[in-house]
Records
---
Amino acid sequence: MPRTFRVSVIGVALLALVALGFFTHIAMEGDSLQGDAFAGAPVASKAVELGGQKFERWGAPRPLPDLKFSDPAGRPASLADFRGRLVLLNLWATWCPPCREEMPALDRLNARLGGDKFVVIALALDSPGKAEAFLRQIKAGTLGAYTDSQGLALSTLRVTTVPTTLLIDARGRELGRLSGAAPWDEKPALELIQSYLKEPT
């Protein structure tokens, strides 16, 4: 099973069933959205293997734009709301098979480490109803149905495949990212998260 789902012609066709005009918006916005936030960002200094996928750790934290989305209650939310905590931001969709496979591991990770210092945000590129239904189906007990039905996260964060997961520090800066599905509840991933939790903020 492929571990990533490229947002391309196939992705457009599938997502057209979910949100009309989604990729038209992405194409119009292109790299103009929040480009300055990525200017001068350092190259990755080290990769950590998680289940055959590589989590790229940046040599220094990268500034991120303040991504907007909807919380599980349908209210406006943003990454800034989670300042003060280490955040694992997972971009996924119900139409993406690797995303669906990965979600239970993210739920278990959040159940084990989630709290005042760390949280998993599973941000669905779907309507709230579809995201909620899937999370209920897999009995995800700790993940809220955060949604970005317009797909702004793809262009804002320069993401080309789903799932893609970003690790964000307590100041809202990107520490690294992984493209593809990973076993987030296994020892290498737990040790990675815990290593950042031990660092001073």
Note: The first strand starts at residue 5 and ends at 6.
---
Amino acid sequence: MVDRRTMKRKKNSHASAARWLFLYTALLSLVGLIFVFEGSIIESYRTFGTPYALITQQLFGVFIGIGAFALALLLPSKIWTRLGTPLYIFGIICLSLVFLPIIGLELNGARRWINLGFMVIQPVELLKFCLIASFAHWFAKKQNIRSFLFLSAIPLTLLLLQPDFGSTLLVGSIAIGIIFVAGGSIKKLLVAGLFCLPLLLLAIFGSSYRLERVKTFFNPSSNTLSTGFHVKQITLAFGHGGLFGQGIGNSQQKQSYLPESSTDSIFAIVGEELGFVGTSLILILFTLLFFQLYKAAMGLEKKPESRLVVYGILFWFAGQTFLNLLATVGLIPLTGEPLPFFSYGRSSLIMILFASGVAIRVARENT
């Protein structure tokens, strides 16, 4: 009787997690779309002659993302871990294509994009899910830390070569998180951390631009016309917001003052227009999403691969959110990581929606 009651509670818990995950995904996507429009109006008008160009592109990403979300809901979740090895190879190939002059795009000294003609994609967004699926499959079956570190080293090295410090840090954090929840010992975690440390130092000191961002973090008043200017404008945006904000559509900083107002710095626009109260509500939404992912993963003790996939998605969403927000409020140097659901970028949004669909599918399969 106790077992039946326990099983029923677990099924109800997974059903509840699936419903809430769907709701929070929809709410964050909707609010995020509003602020992509808000943050991109001026940039869109200056670049394309119309305020609607960038939001139209983002809506195209939403359309594809909804299709990816629906596909993830329809397909059995075990297919992704069964394809762990092919997905790993696919992710590495996609990440390598950025170095081909024919299709690889270089912007601001970084090669992170592929031009498909109809759309520019950022392969690292595909890589995140591919690595989660392959790592989950690997640790559920083998748990060989040396081989795992080797598998992690390849994408991390490619990310450093682009260079992409934020994604290097995020992917490394996801890998360490999966080691931890897979039952890795403190020794294994230390080994993984020591393995990532030289890569982190190389990422910082191997790029003059990255080094300038770190220097600016410790001395914000320096470089006031470059990296320091960015930090100053973010601070001004939050200052303008106050307690209740200037109101949606009334941001001053989006008037060409704040760099990357629709991408990396979009939360500063949120803070200026919604104030402390509004940003707190957004953060609560993110926290509730993370809690439901954790709740879904906790009930999958008998399905280690699915459990690690959901945990991996949690580490991805939470890690990317924290990197963006901590950089925005000045607690860490600017990393360039987009804010999930909010930052402009079709590749990121499509994969975030797809991964959300996978997590919901896993939760539904256990109801």
Note: The CA atoms of residues 169 and 200 lie 7 Å apart.
---
Amino acid sequence: MPVSGIQSGYHIVQMSQQMAEKAAHGISNNVSKVKEELSDHNIDLAAVADVAITASTPSLPSQKVEFLINLAQAAGYNRVGASVIEKNNEIIGSLLDIHV
């Protein structure tokens, strides 16, 4: 039973889309938690932004870093899936040229 490269490519693209959605959802949840904490403490967002810009950048919590890594991996998988589909289409085109 032959396996289509297009099928594999689409599967990789779909998997990368799911990974990106999970990472974006995780990042969004973290941002909303930070906003809730800031609103609970009645902190001026402009003052916080000024302090954050002038202060040295602290290390990000590991959970946020993991979400960003997952997002970067999803982008890589997306490129791989698109490349698989593109190469499969090139092969089909070459086969059609040979048969014609």
Note: The chain has three helices and no strands.
---
Amino acid sequence: MNSITIYRYRLKQYRQFKRKVWLLANDWSVSLYILLPIALLLLFNWISWWGSKQIFLVVHQLRVIGGWLFLYCWFGNLFMAVEEADKVFLLGMRTLITSLRTISLYYSLQKYATHTVLLFVYLLPLFIQCLLINITQVFELLVLVLLWKYYHALMRYILYIKMEHLPAKAAVYVVIFVMDFFLYIWGIKLISMHADIYLFFYLTLLALVVGLQCLYILRLKGTFFKDVDYQLNHKYFSLSLVFLFAPVPHVPLIRSQKTPWIFKRSTRLFSVRNASHVLIECFIKSYCRNFMNLSRYLQIVVYSLIPNAIVPVWIKFLYPLFILFILWEYAKSEWSSYIYSSFFKIHPLPKEQMKKARKLSTLLFILPAGIILYTVSVLSTFLF
């Protein structure tokens, strides 16, 4: 084998590696529940009920630019997954990782700020027309939302990062105290300006502050966050950083000997105990114990609500069907990774019971999402 043949062989391996990594990162469900809302928001700009109003013309160009930036950030985070994909496939391909490191770092830092601003831009017509607020209050509301986002990031730092040094803990607590005081003063000002919307946002922010600080106390006593720390340190966690948390290869999460906090006092889901019911119960509990699974499920549902509240009436009840189809396929993929474990290879179950358990577990999986989506569809039909 001469040098040219070796070079072509390595080049072929390199291209196959890039294609395999890209297909994993660019999951079809991620593409759909990111690209479809953007396409709907841009397509129905002029035929929606407020498309003919003059105030909408002011923000129309912002929405078009925002849609491109939204796709830009999503595309960049695929490279962030490619950067870490050597942990899954090949450990020797350092050239690809080095060349993409700078780009992926830039995209990952840009994602959070752009994501928050774009969601605000998409909802800007509703803020201006339905809530009757002026442009000054709009920008104050944007700053409040950004502050909420960064405060959440700060509390996540406290929850998930182990700070061993006392000065670091003291500095973080000082920052929390200052931000609490600032939010309290500013919240009173905003409530006095416009009581309805600002009271809602301020109470939401206050609930977030109290809830996250309670979670910090639970972290010291419970076992749930120990499992989260294990997930954060796992080699597959980097792949879940794809925008909106793309589905990743199944990884068993629970490693502590104690009963997880989320099911510490749980009862049986079915009164009749048979093989299929036990299989469904184990699948639901194992899925809910995984913090990243819950985050991924909630993000699919919540992000699908945004365009559903804005699109015309005739599509309000068709769009949730598409989201439920995505969740159906996602549940089947999670079920496949669940039943292919070593336990079911050693102790196989009859095919009829497996099919019955898969159908029932998938229905239980999409039932909460269906209730939320169609409730929002009905409410938005009458409110907007």
Note: Residues 3-383 form one domain.
